[in-house]
Amino acid sequence: MQARAVFEAAAEVQKQGIKVKPEIMIPLVGFKKELDLQVELVNRVAQEVMAAKKIKLTYLVGTMIEVPRGALTADEIAHTRSSSASARTT
């Protein structure tokens, strides 16, 4: 999964003393439930990587409204929230 690779790379860079704040963007979202499921997956992967690397990362998870259905349901999509304290949905 690409998110895992991003978090693993961010952890390595942060261990070198460089500040990082990865942003994971979920593409082609049409419904809130789609984004909710993907945010949950990204948060789970982030927690796994942080536990394995013994590091805490601050990251963002969001989406780009790219499809007509997404534009029609954007008001619902905008209410998606992350369950992780170290993550925020944009």
The largest β sheet comes out as:
3 strands, parallel
The overall strand count is 3
State the secondary-structure class: alpha/beta
How much is the average pLDDT?
89
Give an overview of the whole structure.
The protein has 90 residues and is α/β, with parallel strands linked by helices. It has a domain of 59 residues. The chain has four helices and three strands; from the N terminus they run αβαβααβ. Strands 1-2-3 form a three-stranded parallel β-sheet, covered by helices on one side. Helix 1 runs parallel beside helix 2. The two termini are 21 Å apart.
Describe the secondary structure blueprint for this structure.
Layout: H1 2-15, E1 23-26, H2 32-53, E2 59-63, H3 68-72, H4 74-77, E3 87-89
Concise summary:
The chain has 90 residues and is α/β, with parallel strands linked by helices. It has 4 helices and 3 strands, in the order αβαβααβ.
Features:
50% helix; three-stranded parallel beta sheet; 4 helices; single chain; alpha/beta; 13% strand
